[in-house]
Amino acid sequence: MNIIFGYFKALFMTAHELNIILQISCVTTLMIIGTLLFKCGRNDINTWVGVGLVASVVCYLILPSSIVQSTPILFVITVTGSICIPVIFFLLTKVVFDDHYRPSGVIAILFGIQMATHFWVYLQNLISLSPMALQACYIISQIVAIGFVVAGIYTAVKTGKGDLVEARMKFRNAFIFVTAAIIGITLIVESMPILKESVDALQILQRSSILGISLFFLVKNFDVKSGFFFRSELQKEKPVIVEDSQLRKKLEALITDQKVYRKEGLTIKELADIMGEQEYKVRRLINGELGFRNFNDFLNKYRVNEACEILNDASNNRKTILEIAYSLGYQSIGPFNKAFKELTETTPTAYRKAAKS
Question: Does any domain span residue 257?
Answer without folding.
Answer: yes
